[in-house]
Amino acid sequence: MDQILVRGNGPLNGDIAIAGAKNACLALMPATLLTDQPLTLTNAPRLSDIRTMTQLLQSLGSEVASLQDGQVLALSSHAMSSHRADYDIVRKMRASILVLGPMLARDGHAIVSLPGGCAIGARPVDLHLRALEQMGASLELLDGYVHAKAPSGGLRGAVVDFPLVSVGATENALMAATLARGTTVLNNAAREPEIVDLARCLRAMGAQIDGEGTSSITIQGVDALHGATHPVVTDRIELGTYMLAPVMCGGEVTCLGGRIELLESFCEKLDEAGVSVTESERGLTVSRQNGAVKAVNVRTEPFPGFPTDLQAQIMAMLCLADGVSELEETIFENRFMHAPELARMGARIDVHGGHARVTGVERLKGAPVMATDLRASVSLILAGLAAEGETVVSRVYHLDRGYEKVVRKLRGIGADIERIREPAHE
Ligand code: EPZ
Questions:
Q1: Gap between the Cα atoms of 34 and 148, Å rounded
Q2: Which domain holds residue 174?
């Protein structure tokens, strides 16, 4: 398995281009299953998760062409050869469950493997299934697969009250509702920018949707959707990640295409820590000349609260803050696996259940560390950039799921970082 080698190299300066959002693209791609017309996605990120979703859709019979070095995806699903999403793909990427709603809505049946858990938590999909049942689907669990059928007249509109905010369940129900008979209302819906982006794409395909971005979304079902061309929204998590590089190392970095509205709560936290973020038509600029940031307390919440996907990264920043910070992870039950790896670099972190207390230290020291999940992997890279000496991050396949060209982008702002390719097996 490849490794990434990072050496602390002082202040970082320059521009970083922010890609399209992985978590938007993974919901937008299954929308192709709602129509037999072509769907084109531009500003798509080049990531292994996108390739996995491509494989899944192709296994169902969709045509997916990756154009312009992967930045454009041309999808077409007019002749489906299968309605079965196999476990061997679904277990690699949980977002595969997002083909269930669209297949059920357009073709009336689907067989989708349950995704199983992952490193950060059990991550059940009961809310996805309950919403589809409320829309008339009959679901049966057999051999780890959900066998789903819509009524002969198709799914019907329903009022779905989500007991807790779920991004994926909101996306599955939103897509299914676009072709259901009648009106669907999703209450306690997720409000993430990726939901807004999906709604905008579905509307461009002819869907009738109101309220995206609020906690109540209303959808009037239509008979059919047509094709569209849609630009994937900027990745707010990649954006927030790279904003922390100059905070931890010093220097001035502009994240091209960044907008404060994508991550207001994150920017408020940076402001509280004494870090100024300026917005221009080029993007978001973060500069830090000297002195430690102030310790701050962080509690992850559904959007517009502080994003759980930036918790590992801000923890890395707080390891060097002046004072003690309290972090509370409320979304996933096991999302502090980066803490013991950061401790190997000299960080002082006490974890108790969903709480972590971080006591800032003067310096971190490079060390061999192991990536455990996508966002943990990049928090170790950030720590390595700021540490004295050399850090070697192993299991970087986690990183490739959500960060395109991370070595090139960081070298572009002066980081001393390289990828060590595992020698090919003879
Ligand atoms: C999406 O996951 C993102 N993934 C995650 O990003 C992100 O951390 C998460 O939303 C929260 O923002 C994609 O969009 C592909 P949820 P999702 O349903 O939809 C529980 C990354 O690093 N829950 O909002 O799976 C669940 O266990 C990834 O890019 C149920 O109990 O998240 C969790 O505790 C990691 N039943 C909470 O809700 C359900 O049916 C929020 O999960 C669904 C979820």
A1: 16
A2: 22-231
| Cα dihedral: 396, 397, 403, 406 (round 10) | 40
pLDDT in tens, 35-51: 999 999 999 999 999 99
How many domains is the chain built from?
2
Radius of gyration of the CA atoms of the chain, in A: 22
Together in a domain, 307 and 159: no
Task: Identify the residues whose C-beta falls under 6 Å from ligand 1.
Answer: 22-23, 26, 94-95, 121, 123-128, 164, 166-169, 308-309, 331-332, 374-375, 402
Token digits of residue 38: 């072509």
Distance 180 CA to ligand 1 centre (A): 24
Domain finish residue from 175, 202, 231? 231
Q: Which of 201, 231, 261 marks a domain boundary?
A: 231
d(CA 409, CA 197): 25
Q: Please, is 366 exposed, middle or buried when counting C-beta atoms within 10 Å of its C-beta (0-12, 13-18, 19+)?
A: buried
Contact 262, 234 (CB under 8 A): yes
Total-model pTM: 0.97
On whether both 45 and 184 belong to a single domain, the answer is: yes
Q: Tens of pLDDT along 292-319?
A: 899 999 999 999 999 999 999 999 999 9
> Where residue 125 sits, what CATH number does that domain have?
3.65.10.10
399 lies in a domain? yes
